[in-house]
Amino acid sequence: TAGGAGRPGGKGGGIPVARGVSDDEEEADDGQAIPDEQTIKLARAKRERLRQAHLAPDYVPLGGASKLLASGGGTAHTSAQDPEAKMASDSDGEADLEDSMRIKFSAAGETATRQDRKAYSHSIGVHDEEESFASEQLRNAVRRQHASMAAAASSTPAAPVVHGGGLMGAGHAAAGPVTRSRIQQISGLGASVLNALQEGVSRLQASHNSTQANLSRTDANLTSSFAKVEQHEADMKAASEKYTYVQQMRAYMADLCDCLAHKSAIVEELEESLADLREERATSARQTARALEEEMVVPASAAVSAAMGVLGRGGAPPAAAAAAESALEEAEEALADAVFEDAPDEVDEFGRNVNIGKRREAEARRRQRRDAVKREQALLASVSAGGPVAIDQRDEWELEDEGQAARYTSRHKEIMEGGATVFADASDEFATLEAVKQRLEEFKLRYPRDYASIYMQMSTPALFAPYVRLQLLQWDPLYADTAAGGTGGSGEVEATAGFDKQAWYTSLFDFGMGAAGEGGTTGMAEDDPDADLVPQLVRKLVLPIAHHLLAKCWEPCSVRQSSAVADIVGDLCVYVPAEEEGMAGVLNSCVSALEGAVAACSLPPWPPAATGISPQAQAVLSRRFRFALRLLRGISGFEGLLSRPMLLQLALSRVVGQAMMPYLRTAVASATAAAPVLSASGPSFNDLLPSVNIAVARIEAVANSLSPEWFSGPQTPTEASPLLEMATSLAHSLETAAGSNKHQPQQRQHLAALAGRMCKALQRLGQIAPAGKLASTFGLPAR
User: Fold this and answer.
1) Do 647 and 635 form a contact (C-beta atoms < 8 A)?
2) What was the pLDDT predicted at 360?
3) Which long-range contacts (CB under 8 A, 24 or more apart) does 745-751 make?
4) Residue 472 class from Cβ within 10 Å (0-12 exposed, 13-18 middle, 19+ buried)?
5) Which residue, 95, 416, 481, 781, is the most exposed by fewest CB within 10 angstroms?
């Protein structure tokens, strides 16, 4: 063909096609020319020669085919003994060699080798695990046998190469040892197979044990799961019961709060009514006492002035006494006229004449004055005869109007009856404090965590407060005796006793410490907020009532009321610190009331000569003196509650030193003057003895009204120095009166009794040495 040589076309040998091509195109195709048919055939022939040269051994085998194959490792032994394995190995080797020598027209790594395909075929085999394990053990045994036979063959010396029968004869000669060796090899093979089977059985036994252990664990897990299911069912049941109980408790609390919202208003109204009633009574009693004292002093002052006028002009005592009596009657008539004649008519909104009531009150006070004078004169006569000064704790009730006391008793009874019906229409589970306490305590003992998580302890004081306030209506420490008639049989006990003796205190004191609940808890933890329940109620409910009683109703000159107030303050100090504002107000009220009473305590400074002539003046002085003694006892009752220096200042410096000292000094001076005469035991002994009796009785009354703790230390208070000097002087006077032995036995016995009383007074005042000296003078036993 013109223009160049022919090129193969299509697949296989191509047909030459004439094509006009330029020289530039032929030069462009030289770099990527496709070989022609002849070139391909030559390449294949070359490749075949190389393959045959590679397979042909490059050495001469000397030990036979088995030795040649044994030198190739485990594969040669297998091919020498197993023809099928040899054929498979040869075919695999040739195929692998062909693959390695073939020209690869594809990318490297795209075609997998036969070994990879064979490994893949084994990896996806469907043989059973046990069959694969047994076959593998048999193959391993066969391989070890072939290896041992090859080793025996290699250790046998090679026979000389001969031709014909020589070689055949040598083979027959070696047949015996080979047979024994093969038997040994078979025995070894059987032992190895048996060992392999034993190992398999051991592994199967281990697998069985592992399976049993897994079964045991599964059984234990199943049992635990059943237990957890049962526990879960129990928890679900408990949660259901708890939910039901909490919902019931929620409904109960809602109803309780609704009930208390209505009842609390009624209780508050009763509290206010009772507080107003007490304050009204206390105010009325003070006004009555003040009016009575003023009306008693006015006639007595007139009598003393008249007596002093007569005595000042040199008149005789009988004339002075007559003048005092006349002045007294004129003063009484003037008081009556001021009330009955000068007062204009006054009409109230109902058309009633108010002055009629005032005149009745004035007439009642006039009778009280006369009765008081007669009573004081009787007490003075008893003291003059050698009796003690009576400090009757019921004296203060003489100062109260009988009508006012009756109104208080009637109104108090109405309030108590109203309080008893406050919860009469409520259900039993809301009507009493015990019922509410039982429900709340049950909730706390059953579910303490939930009780604390909802801060129930912060609400319990408010829930119990209406019931406590209702019971506190019966607590009337200042007017216990008169209020008892309106509270029924048990009202007197409730009113007289302190608030810590009431039912609410006893019931709530052990709140939360009842019988063991479901959790098995008993008692109360130290950090339990409910332990502060009673102190909170005392602080919020009792403290305001006590403050009102002290500030508005307490009369410090009343021994019984002062003792009750001291007990109240002592009980409050147990639950409320003195630093708190409410408690500080209570203590300040105590101090203010005592200071006011001390400021009002005074004895008229009448001359002894005038008072000795006027019985009315003597009665007034005696009454004022006994009032001062009751005030001393009230002040002494606050020892340990209030500041001792303040109490000493009030009692010794102001009451004894300023108000009582002139009265005491007069009595001691009369006794001192009478002592020398009494020692002579003359006819005037009985006339002078009353002065000594009065002096001893007054010093004894003062000593018994003071707190003995003030004089128990090594040093006596400096405020008591005037009193101690006066008591020691009276003791010397008694020693002087007993100086002679001329007394009659009755007189001696009377003086000894006075000395014994004086010794006790001195010992109470801390004067041990003067008391011992006086006792030895009269031959009294030492105490």
Assistant:
1) yes
2) 77
3) 747/681, 747/685, 750/386, 750/689, 751/678, 751/778
4) buried
5) 781
Which pair of structure tokens corresponds to residue 261? 């919202």
Phi, psi of 642 (to 5 degrees): -115, 170
**Long-range interactions of 2-8: CB distance < 8 A, separation 24+:** 7/34, 7/36, 8/34, 8/36, 8/37
Which of 81, 56, 55 is CA-nearest to residue 66?
81
Q: How many helices (H) and strands (E) does the chain have?
A: 31, 0
The angle, 0 to 180 degrees and rounded to 10, between the axes of the packed helices 129-155 and 175-312 is 130
CB 305 within 8 A of CB 617: no
* CA 473, chain centre distance (Å): 29
Distance CA 266, CA 277 (A): 17
pLDDT along the chain (783 residues), means of 10: 38 38 44 74 85 61 44 41 45 51 46 48 51 74 69 49 41 54 85 90 93 94 93 92 93 94 94 93 86 86 90 88 89 72 61 70 79 88 90 58 81 92 92 93 90 90 94 87 42 56 90 57 70 92 94 90 92 91 93 93 89 89 92 93 94 93 92 80 74 93 93 88 93 83 77 91 92 88 69
Exposed (0-12), middle (13-18) or buried (19+): which is 488, by Cβ within 10 Å?
middle
For residue 736, which amino acid is it? T
Q: ∠ CA(478), CA(480), CA(485), 5° rounding?
A: 145
Distances from the Cα of 398 to the Cα of 367, 393, 410, angstroms: 11, 11, 19
Residues paired with 32 in a beta bridge? none
In 278-394 the beta strands, taken as DSSP E runs, fall at none
Q: Return d(Cα 603, Cα 618) in angstroms, integer.
A: 11
Q: Where are the alpha helices (DSSP H) in 528-684?
A: 533-537, 543-548, 559-575, 581-600, 608-613, 615-636, 644-648, 661-680
Burial of residue 31 (number of CB atoms within 10 Å: 0-12, 13-18, 19+)? exposed
Q: Determine the Cα–Cα distance for residues 473 and 476; give it in Å rounded to an integer.
A: 7
User: What is the number of alpha carbons within 13 Å of residue 589 lying toward its C-beta?
Assistant: 24
